[in-house]
Amino acid sequence: MVRCCTLFLALLLLVRPAAALIYLPEHALEDELATAAVCAIADVKNVDKDAAELTVRDVLLQPKSSTIKAGDSLRITGASLRLSRTHSKPRFAVGDVVIAFLTPKDDAPWALQHSVTLRNDAEVKAMRACVREVLPHAPLLHAAAQDKEPPAEEKLGPAIHELLASKNAFTQILMGRVLGRTLAARYAPASWQSAIIRALESTRKELRTGGLRFAEKLEKLPADLRPPLEKIAADKDDSANAALAKELLARDKK
Known about the structure:
This protein is α+β, with helices and mostly antiparallel strands. It has two domains: 4-120, no CATH class; 149-253. The chain is 37% helix and 23% strand. The chain has helices at residues 121-134, 138-146, 153-164, 169-186, 193-200, 205-215, 226-233, 239-253, and strands at residues 4-6, 12-16, 19-29, 33-47, 52-61, 73-76, 97-101, 112-117. Strands 1, 2, 3, 4, 5, 6, 7 and 8 form an eight-stranded antiparallel beta sheet that branches. Strand 4 and strand 5 (52-61) form a beta hairpin. The protein starts with a strand and ends with a helix. The relative contact order is 0.10.
């Protein structure tokens, strides 16, 4: 018997001016991901940094287990990418808005973690590469965010460090959200010091922010964290993170 499991984390929206194509892989097989999907057209009411509001216009394809129907209102309020291995080169195009978020197991709000407009061919290529990087680690990242008992740190750690080593801008942004939200909410930061340092040493502002948010959970700053924090605190081109770093350094002196 083929064992089914729920695939990772997100809904992909390709937003064009007034409508969105919603593509949602729902299930996975052991040897081949994504055998069922929801595909629908939705009217976009609003998309901003905090939420996306849509109304389903027409459902083109969905498995029997799905209950999406025309007229449904969707409010997406968190993030990552969920795609089929058979679509490892998704058909992104210049002008698409890609919205990524974590799917909950209950009726809790869907916190938006990231949205981006693909402005040129280079960004389209980068987003495709991001999907290829994130997809192999999707089940672990989903479990870290959703399971009652998240994966042990020694199991999740290699995936986190591999993704933190990525040079891809979109992967770095998503990992900033993972550190600052998923890991900060569910793991003790003391044993993730190397991941926090790698994030703080990044030039990607969103990844720095994730490292800072995770570091906020520390009762006392380890000595190894002070140099990257001091560097961020002195960065005049990253004022928001500089302020966070200064707060952490000041708190540690009390």
